[in-house]
Structures are given as C-alpha cells and as structure tokens.
Design brief:
- Helices cover 30% and strands 17% of the residues.
- It is α/β, with parallel strands linked by helices.
- The protein folds into two domains: 132 residues, Rossmann fold (3-Layer(aba) Sandwich); 137 residues, 3-Layer(aba) Sandwich (Rossmann fold), CATH 3.40.50.2000.
C-alpha cells in the first residue's frame, strides 16, 4: 500500500485524522498537514493525497487523490459553497462521504468510485467509568458546542425557565457571552475544557445525557458525534427532534426521550427504557467496514 498524506485546512480538530493514522499506521507511513505541507513533501507523486474537504481548485500531484467529505460547507452561503466545490475542483480518484444524505446533496454524476465512512467513536469509550466527582454527578449533562450561532442560549433559557428537577453539567468551553449570561444560575454547572476521557466519565455519571443538534445545513445531514458517544456508553439520552438525531436513533434502534426544538420544556416525559451500549461504531470498526483499505490496496 502506498504511503498516505492526510491534507486538512489545519484550523479545526479532526478526530478522523487521528483515527485514520491509527488504522493505517501498521500498513504504511501516514502523515498529515496542510496542502502546503504536502506540496513540500519529496516524492509526493507516489503518495496518496487524502483530502479532508476543503476547497482544492488546483490538481494535486499525487498517485491517488481522495476527496473526503466529513462535513458539507459551513457558515454563510453554504449551498453556493458546495456548488463551487462540486463544479470547480478537479475530479479525484475516490470520494468518501459520511453518509448517503451528504452524497445526495452533492449529487455528483461522474464515474468516481464513492465509499461511505460514517463517524466513529474512540475504542477506549467502552472502558469508561463514571467520575467520582460529586459536583459532576447530576441529573443532566451536555457535551458540545455552546454558542449563539447554534441557538444554545435558547436551550439554556428553556432549562432555567422550566423546573427540570435537577442540575445540568455543561462540559466544554462556552462562548463568552453565554457564560457571562448564565454562570450565576446555580443549576448550571460549567466545567470548562476537560479531556475527552474526563468528559465521557461525566456523561457516565449523570442520569440523562443531552444531545442538542441544529436543524440547518450542514448539520441536518451529518451524524451528531456526541449522540454516537452517548449510545456507545449506553446512557439514557434526551434530545431535540433534529433530523440527524432521529436518523441515528432509528438506525441503531436506540431508546431516547425526544423533545422539541430546544429540548427542555414543561411536562417533559422521560423514556426510562434501559439502553444497551451500541457496539461496532468504534473508528476501527467503521473504517474497516467502509472498504477504503481494499480500495487503496488495489491501487498499489
């Protein structure tokens, strides 16, 4: 198998990159970096250029070029951005999508081989134990982005304006405006940034794990990573009725309390069905099941 260079914009955290490197490291050399880093690589014509999309308008000089759509475009004018990506990038040798919904949105009509590689979870998640920190053993917990762009302030408004019979642990770094507005509410416990393992141990300790996911593009086409983590931990879930949440719950037949747009409200009735941890969604499992190893092997 040829050596692999994973090209990414370098601006965000990509759990996929670490997962890909771990999976393929026993078969070949795997490096990652920006397009500029790849262009400075000696002998790059013999490498696989695995592009986390991005916009790459110039032809990449590599033995095999992969376009990997882990997400569709974000920010303003997303449909226009995706159209430009579709029409004004050179054709790759392989395309990867997270799921068929993303592939349908992009709707390529050429003969490029397409593979589906879903989001995964780290293998260590199946060995996580609940935290012993009493402050973090609450009725609810939430891990993820806390920003006004995602309307998370409306989720917190719904929580504090409706008695939920307990507190919520908010794991991660909230937007400054959100923290300043809500930090004085005693039922809201902000942890700040913690390690992934510590965050998951908090999830394991709380009665309900909250998954709030936006309705708008591109989020409605991609799997909520935190929901996958909750399901792998086998914890009780409460979530809003965003299409992505509903799609993943149905896919894995996972019981959950499904609520309205901003999760919390009056007379919320909880699904107390004891869930079982979902197996087979570790990164090693989903990469191995995607067909990408064979697709690269036959290309040398």
């Amino acid at each position: 198998m040829r050596d692999i260079f994973i090209i990414h914009p370098g601006k965000a955290n990509y759990p996929e990159v670490s997962a890909y490197k771990d999976f393929f490291s026993g078969s070949c050399t795997v490096l990652d970096g920006t397009l500029s880093d790849f262009m400075s690589l000696e002998g790059r014509q013999d490498w696989v250029a695995w592009c986390i999309m991005g916009f790459y308008p110039a032809k990449i000089d590599a033995s095999v070029v992969i376009h990997d759509y882990r997400s569709l475009s974000v920010g303003a004018f997303v449909a226009a951005k995706d159209y430009i990506k579709k029409k004004f990038q050179p054709k790759p040798d392989l395309r990867i999508f997270q799921n068929e919904a993303m592939s349908s949105v992009m709707s390529f009509s050429d003969d490029v081989e397409t593979l589906y590689l879903p989001m995964g979870v780290p293998s260590f998640i199946y060995n996580i134990e609940a935290t012993n920190n009493p402050l973090h053993k609450q009725k609810f917990c939430y891990i993820g982005e806390m920003s006004r762009e995602r309307n998370f302030d409306k989720v917190l408004d719904a929580f504090v304006n409706n008695d939920q019979g307990g507190s919520i642990v908010l794991v991660g770094s909230p937007q400054k405006e959100i923290y300043e507005k809500y930090r004085h509410f005693p039922q809201l416990i902000f942890t700040g940034r913690v390690s992934q393992k510590e965050a998951l141990s908090i999830v394991k300790a709380c009665a309900f794990s909250v998954c709030y996911f936006p309705w708008h593009r591109p989020h409605k086409f991609q799997a909520p990573t935190k929901l996958l983590e909750y399901m792998a931990l086998g914890v009780s879930v409460i979530c809003n009725d965003a299409p992505s949440n509903l799609r993943e719950l149905e896919k894995f037949s996972y019981p959950a309390t499904v609520s309205g747009d901003y999760v919390f409200g009056n007379n919320l009735s909880f699904d107390l069905t004891p869930p079982s941890a979902v197996k087979g969604i570790s990164w090693r499992d989903v990469i191995g099941g995607s067909g990408i190893y064979d697709a690269l092997s036959v290309r040398g």
